[in-house]
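Lab notebook page, bench 4
Experiment: in silico fold of construct C2
Operator: M.H.
Input chain length: 309 residues
Purpose: comparison with the prior construct
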Amino acid sequence: MRTKQRLTEDIHRDRRAVLVVNTHSRRGRLLYEGAKTRLERAGFHLLASYPVEKPRRLEETLIKARESGADLVVAGGGDGTISTAARLMAHRENALGLLPLGTTNNFARTVRVPLDLDEAIDTLVSGKVIDVDLGRAGDMLFTNHVGVGLSAAVMDAAPPPLKRLAGRWAYPLTGLLLLLRHRPMRVVVRAEGDEHEFRTHQLYVANGGFHAGRPITADADADDRLLVAYPVGGKGRFGLLRETARNAATGHRRTLVDEPFLAVGELWLEADRSAPVEVDGEPCGRTPMRIGLEANALRVMAPAGTIDR
């Protein structure tokens, strides 16, 4: 397998890439042609270019792109699209390039890829290949987070007509309705010989440094060999809302040693009842579940000054 430095040099020299954009989303549909044109103007030789209109075709298209012989697979879309691309590109010689076209763009923020389309393409032109960790929840790799409790229930319950009508607001609206009757869970996290118990409506296990477009802490990232487990609020329903707002406002000031964060390399998660689990916004079974890390599992194109451990 080529070194990261050699792969970076090959990308800079040959500019062999494949473009895959999820055009099912409004921004993807609007920006696909512009992204393709900008990449070609930047000197990239696109071996293929795929606008994916049907979500069920995304995985097979990304596999086709991965096997094309291109040094760089450029994926455009939101966190769900990028997470799918990352899973399929894990432990591969070629690199993943990011065009963040979603609402929160958590993984792009974590690896410091600019959210502006032109600047993101500049990163593909002049950046470097780094490798970052991926999480593993059961058998499923993930870039950003595992959610247990209310967030997973929302993924199951948000009605498609509401999602079409309200867009990203469909999830908080559904969450507010579910919260009125959602019962708190007793969640136990076992890690490094210790047991940690939380009484909460929601618990997250994060791999990257961002959630909902906001920093989790000032020192969490996707290349630190750590997962970060933390509850949002306690057993009270409105504590969840209060803590969500607090986390959004103060995440950039907190560190991994602060309460209630638990930073470990692997953990076992269980609850007092079988609770639904979502991984990067996709349903992924129920508790109990082992959650771990695969170090340096993904090669991704990042800005030239990015620290690569």
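Observations: The domain at 140-295 is CATH 2.60.200.40 (Tumour Suppressor Smad4). Residues 26-41 form the longest helix (16 residues).
Next step: discuss at group meeting.
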